[in-house]
Amino acid sequence: MPYRVSLEISRRRETRRQGWERQQLPDELGECLTDSLGIGPDFSLLQTRYQPRKDLVEDSLKQLEQPVLAITLGLVGESMFRGRCGTELCFRQGYTTVSTFRYIQGERHYRCDCGVRQLRLLIGAEMLDYYLGSETACKLLLSGKGGVQQLSHRPTTGASQAHVNALLRETEGESLDKLQAHIHVLSLLAEQLRHLDLQLPKRIPRHCQRDIGKLDEARAILETRMDQSLTVSELAAAVGLNECKLREGFRHRFNKSPHRLLLEVRMKKAWQLLETGCQVAEAAYSVGYEHPSNFSAAFSRFFGCAPKSVFGPKR
């Protein structure tokens, strides 16, 4: 009988070099770990290494605010995911699997005689919206409406393997700067999207006056409720638009996504507060950040200077 790992089992977590986060099952089960790195907004890189001492079934449960595109490149061995609704995804050496999910509820299966190593890219809705346009991004991601949906499973190409090798050197300790990392992950994404043969929309979206009014209303909500954690689905429901039309409308009318517009509104308001002598923590809470450290990092990325450098009226 395989050993079953429940959601309640204690997993060791640690922060490693250059921002990598490791999550590992207890040592007595064998080498079973996942390293993850956020390499940009809405973009994560994960490397999984499993060599269990006996057959292993690991319960999996994940719920996301927005759907995600997953590109899994099988490097060694094979594993399987079986969803509660009956969906099965197989990941094996030499193959690339593309899938979408908004929630995952099921089991991951690993064999003791089959060491597994996989590299996985997770791409969120906002980044796909930026590169594909709202209509195509929504069509792509909503294909996984029932939970998990496999879009393709094909042999890994030589071009993809070259990008994988470069990214693996980073995970194994060789430095790879941010520009190089972005080039490799975006190249992998572009190749898989080409394989999916997406029909990119060529028309310029048109919106009736009623929809334009709703888009302006949505913008006003972001500006007046910037201190709240609003999701795109909640914003769309508040003004009576579907998510796809809201994203597409923001891109067309305001030339930015709802998330980007909210960030700009928050940062500009925070600057004004800091200039009047508001403390950094107080400014953070006022514009919707629970943790001042997260606010400081976002502020520095947006303006290129730390919040403390703005604090207080200038003489």
User: What's the helix-strand series?
Assistant: EEEEEEEEEEHHEHHHHHHHH
CATH superfamily of the largest domain: Jelly Rolls
Task: Name the average pLDDT.
Answer: 84
Q: Quick one: overall form?
A: globular
Give the number of domains.
2
Q: Specify the oligomeric state.
A: single chain
Distance between the termini: 74 Å
The CATH class of the largest domain is Mainly Beta
Number of strands: 11
Key features of this structure:
single chain; 315 residues; alpha+beta; Jelly Rolls; Arc Repressor Mutant, subunit A; eleven-stranded mixed β-sheet
Task: Please give a structural write-up.
The protein is an alpha+beta fold and 315 residues long. It has 2 domains: 3-195, Jelly Rolls; 209-309, Homeodomain-like (Arc Repressor Mutant, subunit A), CATH 1.10.10. 38% of the residues lie in helices and 31% in strands. It has helices at 125-132, 134-141, 158-171, 178-195, 209-224, 232-239, 243-253, 258-275, 280-286, 292-303, and strands spanning 3-5, 12-15, 21-24, 30-40, 43-52, 56-76, 78-83, 88-92, 95-110, 116-124, 148-155. Strands 1, 2, 3, 4, 5, 6, 7, 8, 9, 10 and 11 form an 11-stranded mixed β-sheet that branches. A hairpin with a 2-residue loop joins β4 (30-40) and β5 (43-52). α1 packs across α2. 29% of the residues are buried. Mean pLDDT is 84; it is low at 199-204.
